[in-house]
Amino acid sequence: MQNIAFVGLGAMGAPMAKSLISAGFDLGVFDVREENMGALVEMGAAGAASPREAAENADALVLMVVNAEQTEAALFGENGAAEALGPGAPVVVMSTVGPGPIRALDGRLSEERLRLLDAPVSGGVARAERGDLLIMAGGPEDLFARLRPALDAMGSTVVHCGPSAGDGQSVKLVNQLLCGVHIAAAGEALAYAEALGLNPESVHETIRHGAAGSFMLEDRGRRMLDRAFLPPKSALDIFVKDMNLVREAAAERGFETPLSDAAHRLYEAGSSMGFGREDDSGILRVFEEGMGPSQET
């Protein structure tokens, strides 16, 4: 498998596509923002005017768009990629869309004689740039093995989470539950330190060495202290979406998620306050500015 179509070249997608090029794969690329293709074209990728054009002559299609709606549009909308792919071609969905939508997509792709690998990622932009992502894959073992060289180009930890579409998404939602709660907790902790009359910088430097230290406290906490909200490395609105996916999947199983519910309200408050397209570390300001608009469930 040498020729790959890659659709979705945002903050995560662009470095992932670059990793594939660096590993020797031939890429056709598309993004709704034409300017996002420039650096990849300079590296040797073929820029396309549509998902369909990107997928022409491709052995596989990788999708790294924002949500389930964009995934459907890239595949089946006007000039969608599905019609350009040959029978049996793999479609690799690396976006976080939730297990329900991915299972529905698997059924539709099967009707088109296409195969789906569910492979969401975690690690953030810096790790994407190093090809150091965690990739959580769900799908048939033979398809996973077939795509493994491409996955290894983008991730240092590539895990086959189960044989069915949706297995990768389910693991990703557990990941997002923890990430979303951790970021919110870091914001509350640093705002709390200031409310106690402490220097948040000193508090952060102290507690990061103890049992309360975590990747999210180190990474997002640093951004909070630096007030590095623009440009966003990961937009706050992504956690509005992802925490809602966590809650929806839990509700389908009759499982209560009180911490996720609380975190979701905080992200919704941040979005309502105008911070949605800024970095998710900006949730700090929800605590600083008194929780924003009332968020009732």
UniProtKB/TrEMBL annotation:
Residues 166-286 form the 3-hydroxyisobutyrate dehydrogenase-like NAD-binding domain. Coiled coil: none annotated. Keywords: NAD, Oxidoreductase. GO terms for molecular function: NAD binding; NADP binding; oxidoreductase activity. The active site is at 172. It comes from the Bacteria. GO terms for biological process: organic acid catabolic process. InterPro entries: 3-OH-isobutyrate_DH-rel_CS, 6-PGluconate_DH-like_C_sf, 6PGD_dom2, 6PGDH_NADP-bd, HIBADH-like_NADP-bd, HIBADH-related, NAD(P)-bd_dom_sf. Residues 3-162 form the 6-phosphogluconate dehydrogenase NADP-binding domain. Pfam families: NAD_binding_11 (PF14833), NAD_binding_2 (PF03446). The keyword GTP-binding does not apply. Belongs to the HIBADH-related family. This is 2-hydroxy-3-oxopropionate reductase. It comes from uncultured Rubrobacteraceae bacterium.
